[in-house]
Amino acid sequence: MKEYLGMTLNEFIIRRQSDFKYATGELSRLLSHIGVAAKIVNREVNKAGLVDILGEVGTVNTQGEAQQKLDVYADSQFIHALRASGEVCGMASEEDDNIVTFDNVLANDGKYIVCIDPLDGSSNIDVNVSIGTIFSIYRRISERGHKAEEKDFLQEGLKQVAGGYVIYGSSTMLVYTTGRGVNGFTLDPSIGEFCLSHADIRTPESGAIYSINEGYYLKFEDAIKKYIKYTQEVDKQTKRPYKARYIGSLVADFHRNLLKGGIYIYPATADAPNGKLRLLYEANPLAFVVEQAGGMAINGKDRILDMKPQDLHQRTPLIIGSTNMVNKVMEFIENK
Ligand SMILES: O=P(O)(O)OC[C@H]1O[C@](O)(COP(=O)(O)O)[C@@H](O)[C@@H]1O
Ligand SMILES: [Mg+2]
Ligand SMILES: [Mg+2]
């Protein structure tokens, strides 16, 4: 794979088209349209303080969260790009209560649906901290030629044909998998192209970083409290105490841990028994990526990718990262 380093995203997609089980170019086109929308969002993120894109819109999304201007802007850019691709019959987004369909013949004939978190890390938008976009792609199961249906979106994560994220950080990267490994592309502003910079990403089996919002410590179940204590004990052999790192943008915490080894935990709490993060457009795509990179993702009981979604905006506890670390948390949960 190293021989592809520096190759643009589009060249890479076309060259690796044989990856796609049903390879007829549609998924290639769809992925490159996601790349285009990411570049447009990146352009606004980079100059956020200079344009009227910071702050709240004044509306709340279906989860009761105040929508940031950039949440809504990013949502509209991805809706536009997915409609323009002609490959997508519908989209589920954190910022839209219901399925977004595109009501034109071409789109209704689209083979794919997309679940998306257009802007992840909304609490960090105004303070110039890394944020991202998370996406998940499935083949529709409803009949082509008609609007997408809810059943198209309530498929298990293991049925994804592609999953990934964009991180708008010190550099902008797009990382994705189609089920044959994970590759990362860095946006080269001088040519305006995503170029392969991280080929065949593998996450270490063990790491020394843990990411959890300890501000909720008192609300965590005992097993999670015990795991946090375990991470802080001194033990050279297992590189403990681990470093605590929590950016508060899931994409950024996940990306760091993916490359360096580590664990991200957003558990159930006393007042949020299903945690905070959303199964369809946060947990599932990152679980697909981490498993393809050799890691693990669970909800405290089951594998995330085996979960059968019941609702578009369903939440789930998420424990994700290096295999040995996720297994350790599971040990604490099972021995509680
Ligand atoms: O502030 P908390 O409760 O730690 O939550 C932070 C988490 O919430 C999120 O911001 C939720 O995602 P959105 O910003 O897309 O709503 C994650 O990115 C992040 O990891
Ligand atoms: Mg999010
Ligand atoms: Mg979001």
UniProtKB/TrEMBL annotation:
Catalytic activities: beta-D-fructose 1,6-bisphosphate + H2O = beta-D-fructose 6-phosphate + phosphate
Residues annotated to bind Mg(2+) 2: D117, D120, E282
One cellular component (GO) term of this entry: cytosol
Co-factor: note: Binds 2 magnesium ions per subunit.
Gene Ontology biological-process entries: fructose 1,6-bisphosphate metabolic process; fructose 6-phosphate metabolic process; fructose metabolic process; gluconeogenesis; sucrose biosynthetic process
Domain Fructose-1-6-bisphosphatase class I N-terminal: 7-198
Residues reported to bind substrate: D120, G121, S122, S123, N213, Y246, K276
UniProt similarity note: Belongs to the FBPase class 1 family.
UniProt name for this protein: Fructose-1,6-bisphosphatase class 1
Organism: Salinivirga cyanobacteriivorans
